[in-house]
Design goal:
Elements (H helix, E strand, L loop, with lengths): L12 E2 L11 E3 L1 H7 L1 E6 L8 E4 H12 L7
Antiparallel strand pairs: 1-2, 2-3, 3-4
Length: 74
């Protein structure tokens, strides 16, 4: 079983919740979610670094919680 996910052609999108001062920026690859059923997430300051990969259902739950204010802002 091959568990390697090829992200070389992924189109990354910066989260609208990321700060604009280049400090805390998160990017995700929604096109991979459509084809692989997972959502890769990475730190935009380190695009060649590792990506975390979440099942679509987990990512959807997380983003819904963020939008509804379940996580306090610092």
């Amino acid at each position: 079983m091959n568990t390697t996910l090829d992200l070389s052609g992924a189109e990354w999108v910066k989260s609208s919740y990321s700060s604009g001062d280049e400090g805390q920026c998160v990017e995700f690859a929604p096109s991979i979610a459509t084809t692989a059923g997972v959502v890769p997430v990475r730190d935009s300051k380190h695009p060649a670094g590792p990506a975390l990969v979440f099942p679509v259902e987990a990512w959807t739950s997380f983003t819904s919680a963020v939008r509804s204010g379940e996580f306090p802002a610092n």
